[in-house]
Design a protein that fits this description.
The chain is about 35% helix and about 15% strand. The strands form 7 sheets. It has a 4-stranded mixed β-sheet with strand order 3-4-7-8. A 3-stranded antiparallel β-sheet has the order 5-9-6. A 3-stranded antiparallel β-sheet has the order 11-10-12, with no helix packed on it. It is globular and about 75 Å long. The relative contact order is 0.07. Among the domains are: about 180 residues, Orthogonal Bundle (Hypothetical protein af1432); about 160 residues, no CATH class; about 40 residues, no CATH class. The longest helix is centred in the first third of the chain and has 22 residues. The protein is of the alpha+beta class. It comes from Chytriomyces confervae. One of its GO terms (cellular component) is nucleus. One of its GO terms (molecular function) is dGTPase activity. Pfam families: HD.
Length: about 650
């Protein structure tokens, strides 16, 4: 196969990079050129002056490496039947993989969009596909440059898989740009090498050697087994970059401030609206900050004041950090690590000082890993031996080195304040008292992993009418830190309450709980209804021990509305305390049973004993085999069939 190159780019990382004419057809478009105005490391540039490189040169580097990897496999293994179509699409996927990034990269889709558009699932990867399609159509690229079939395949390569579920015969091509198997791809090769160079840090990973020792075995890219330690260094270097640079505490304060600036300016400038308009998004870059600073609009007064603080280095403060012990990881979560829990350990004078300062308190639940949580990513890689290149295998830790770590994930708790150092010191003292009482604040008994699974729980069947206005209204409530199993006269629901507070309201006639306590006095805690919330429901009251439904007839908002529900209702899911977002309102359309970790699941997934009564309920479903996975001749199933048959005869 012969390729015609027409331009060469000199790069500080890869040297001379040759680009074919179809590459320049995409590069020379406004959609690609906007990457010149997007900093690769976002807020880190405010901390590390050397981090001045942009998404533009990174994308060129990824396209170059994608082409190198594809050409290497093509020349090494002719039996793969790779053609010009494959190499062209892989190269263009490398070039276009970051087209969808917004201002300051991950700040935009990771923090800004979730705040101004709660519930939105917008991601820059999806935007990259849309921007690529827009670049092709808006600039009139011909089929010789990028055809319709090529565009479809390029978008799948950016995504890392084919959305239609069809099995492409060359699945190894998806391992090059966005590797979903083990996360080793040319995107990491470039940004780890490029970021290390511009930051002045040493990089021990040799990507060129790694690429030279790749081959395809069983439709998957594999490495020579001698490359295992080199790949291990890749993930170790990536962790160091996240620990020392990407998640630097000062960089995080700038990130919080930039997010606040964008949120303050969004209503006037319509920043978030650009994600719905490809043409408008083409001109949305880091330059939005200069536009805010230049503006004289009174609506941007607060945003300009915050930007001035950034320019004067009057930044938010990191009050304190704490590395969470491994055994506490299942108890302290992002959802229950809140500023309210921390401030509960403040004295009256400290609370008065914090209120008087009008400071904002931010919590940060920082999870760092080697890519796959607690798992060693090398365990997901497959290797070959030079004496048998057609057989792949995995390598255990004992086959690599005794120095390979046993822990691959850490969690750090951090708190930040938006005001001066005096408030930061006060919050630091409060936070350290909170840390000293971490065991009592998050006891092991409250961890769902430590809860026993009941042997015989009657699982009622539910329908949408199980809790309508005709339901019984004499329910009583149990406040506990354990999982509650609730059953009513007309149906029931399994409730997971991981924290003190009631997640069940109205429609209950009986509560079957673990470690039930005597009812306490009735208490209510009122909360104001949010005025600009849409698409979500919020708990308005907190029902405590002994409260009846007649005392609290309506305590929920219907999702997507601002009206209270009429009649009894049930809240189920992860709803544990006042102010939490309600996951669901109403009865479940499927039977729910308790699992060990407090989750709800269809019958059959919990592996609990199925009594004839349960089987009777399952038989009423349209597809009972979907819920019960037993052998055809199992004694349980035979007995249940006999009971069902006898009930039908009667």
């Amino acid at each position: 196969m012969r390729q015609q190159y027409d331009k060469v780019v000199t790069d500080p990382i890869h040297g001379q990079m040759r680009m074919d004419s179809y590459c320049w057809a995409l590069i020379d478009t406004p959609q690609f050129q906007r990457l010149r105005d997007l900093k690769q490391l976002g807020s880190a540039y405010f901390v590390f002056p050397g981090a001045s490189h942009n998404r533009f040169e990174h994308s060129l580097g990824v396209g170059h490496l994608a082409n190198m990897q594809a050409m290497h496999l093509h020349h090494l293994q002719r039996d793969l039947d790779m053609d010009q179509f494959d190499i062209k699409c892989v190269t263009l996927a490398g070039l276009a993989h970051d087209l969808g990034h917004g201002p300051f990269s991950h700040i935009f889709d990771g923090h800004f969009i979730p705040r101004v558009r709660p519930g939105s699932n917008w991601k820059h990867e999806d935007a990259s596909e849309r921007m690529l399609e827009h670049a092709v159509k808006a600039n009139g690229l011909t089929d010789d440059q990028i055809s319709e079939d090529e565009l479809k395949f390029i978008k799948a390569l950016i995504r890392g898989h084919e959305s239609n579920g069809s099995a492409n015969q060359k699945q190894f091509l998806f391992d090059i740009v966005n590797n979903k198997r083990n996360s080793i791809d040319v995107d990491k090769f470039d940004y780890i090498g490029r970021d290390s160079l511009y930051l002045g840090m040493k990089c021990g990973f040799d990507y060129q050697r790694s690429m030279q020792f790749t081959r395809v075995v069983d439709n998957q890219i594999c490495w020579n087994k001698n490359e295992a330690l080199n790949l291990n260094e890749l993930f170790h270097t990536r962790y160091n970059l996240f620990k020392q640079v990407y998640c630097h505490k000062v960089g995080k304060t700038v990130e919080l401030m930039l997010t606040d600036v964008l949120c303050l300016a969004d209503e006037h400038l319509g920043i978030s609206a650009a994600i719905d308009d490809n043409e408008q998004y083409t001109y949305l870059t880091d330059a939005i900050l200069r536009e805010i600073e230049r503006s004289k609009a009174p609506e941007l007064k607060d945003a300009r004041a915050l930007m001035k603080r950034i320019r004067l280095r009057d930044l938010y403060r990191c009050a304190d950090t704490f590395l969470l012990p491994t055994e506490m990881a299942t108890r302290v979560t992002k959802q229950n690590f809140t500023k309210e829990r921390i401030l509960a350990y403040a004295t009256e004078s400290e609370m008065n000082e914090i209120r008087k300062s009008r400071t904002e308190i931010y919590t940060d639940y920082l999870v760092l890993s080697w890519c796959f949580g607690k798992e060693n990513p090398i365990d997901r890689c497959r290797f070959y031996n030079k004496f048998d290149v057609d057989t792949s295998f995995t390598l255990s830790r004992s086959q690599l080195s005794q120095f390979i770590p046993h822990v691959f994930q850490e969690i750090t708790l951090r708190v930040f304040v938006s005001k001066d150092d005096r408030v930061a010191v006060t919050l630091q003292n409060v936070f350290r008292r909170f840390i000293d009482n971490l065991e009592s604040e998050y006891p092991a008994s409250a961890d769902p992993a430590h809860l026993p699974v009941p042997e015989n729980i009657t699982v009622p069947m539910y329908s949408e009418s199980s809790f309508d206005s005709g339901g019984t209204l004499d329910a009583r409530f149990q406040e506990t830190r354990r999982i509650l199993f609730a059953e009513s006269s007309r149906g029931g629901v399994v409730v997971n309450s991981s924290d003190a507070g009631v997640a069940v309201v109205n429609g209950m006639t009986e509560l079957l709980g673990i470690e039930q306590e005597e009812p306490e006095s009735v208490r209510k805690e009122k909360f104001r209804t949010p005025t600009k919330k849409t698409g979500s429901a919020v708990v308005l009251e907190r029902a405590s021990s002994g409260m009846t439904s007649s005392e609290s007839p309506n305590v929920a908002l219907v999702p997507g509305t601002k009206k209270k529900m009429n009649g009894p209702s049930v809240l189920f899911g992860e709803v544990g305390s006042v102010g939490d977002t309600v996951v669901s309102v109403g009865a479940s359309p499927q039977p729910l049973i308790p699992l060990r970790r407090g989750m709800n699941a269809p019958i059959g997934e919990a592996r609990l004993p199925l009594t004839p009564r349960r089987m009777k309920g399952i038989a009423d479903l349209p597809d009972p085999e979907r819920y019960v996975q037993f052998r055809q001749d199992s004694p349980q199933k035979k007995r249940a069939r006999r009971d069902i048959a006898s009930d039908d005869d009667s």
